[in-house]
Amino acid sequence: MLRGFYTATAGMISQQRRMEMLSNNLSNANTPGYKADQSSLRAFPELLMKRMEQANIPTTKPINFAQQQTIGPLNTGVYLQETAPKHVQGDMRPTGNDTDIAILNQQLPEGSSIFFTVENQDGTPRYTRNGNFTLDQQGYLTTNSGQYVLDENNNRIQIQSRQFDMQQDGTILENGIVNSRIGIAFAPNAYDLIRDGNGLYRLENNEALPQAAGNPGTVFQVLQGHIERSNVDTAQTMTDMTSAFRAFEANQKVIQAYDTTMQKAANEIGRIN
């Protein structure tokens, strides 16, 4: 009887974590460059139940020996195995703001992705698809959370004027003169990246990714005056949230039924008249 409690509880915990993930996706539906998380549920390993018993051989000296009788498999519930961002490009939205920059994927090797390179507060590289940049008081191109945007040589990009042009290959022209070229990093396996908050990603050991320019099979454009919208499908997310809530509620009713049965067993069946 208690195994049923554990199985239903595991289902409730899994659906609660799934609901939290979906709620986070929905709250970031308007965050530029945000990549929606996706989850996978997996069942715990099944247990093969067997009954242990003894058999007697009626001889002059009775012989007892153990034997097993198979009852059947027992499922022990599910768990949320992992969550991983879905690295699918979002729609492009024009803004007219010179410091808004977007990456348009044209051709990428399967499973890979490309990102802007920024410098974290501790000096280690971070990667983002959120090109909603700004210029600080010293003229450095930064993210809204204060990270410096880096060029292809991993140097900070400083622009003297807010009027600048960015070519489709990422080259920055200031008054017709080449300033630098924005750094676009190439991740051979995008799922190796770890979320680091504020739309940033990093590798496990804060390693640096190679540049995407010149990488075989990688073709992209840099669009000035555009931002990439999140790839959250709000309608599908709402549907998934409803499904997760109903599954949570179903497991909750199972626990209530077990609780009622246990209450009857304790208060009625075991009562001596």
TrEMBL record:
SUPFAM superfamilies linked to this entry: Flagellar hook protein flgE
Sequence ranges assigned to domain Flagellar hook protein FlgE/F/G-like D1 in this UniProt record: 115-172
Record's keyword terms, sorted: Bacterial flagellum, Cell projection, Cilium, Flagellum
Localization per Swiss-Prot or TrEMBL: Bacterial flagellum basal body
Record's keyword annotation contains RNA-binding: no
Domain Flagellar basal-body/hook protein C-terminal: 224-267
Keyword rRNA processing: no
Family recorded in the similarity comment: Belongs to the flagella basal body rod proteins family.
Protein name per its UniProtKB record: Flagellar basal-body rod protein FlgG
Origin species: Sutcliffiella rhizosphaerae
